[in-house]
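seq:
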Amino acid sequence: MSEWQAIPADHPALPGHFPGKPIVPGVVLLNYVCAAVRREAGDKVRCSGLPGTKFLAPLLPGEPFTIELDFGTGSRVKFSCKTADRTIAQGTLQIETAAGVEQ
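struct:
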């Protein structure tokens, strides 16, 4: 996946993070990454862990970014989040079939 998206400036997690110079919290960015995994792999998959994640640069509200996923093999997905000129986060997610979902 590599479509451009942005966290809106009125997102409820932004007030207070940080006053006068807001940045998108890492947990919000990871929520977008997990949503991208579900769009690619289907609703029967959920993110169950973060074996390794690095936040390399801040993301500003409204700043366009992309999410790139590499499913490879097994139950881990590599990801990177990038703006037009830098990588803002990268890492690995653990995924599994969501409990209680019939296959």
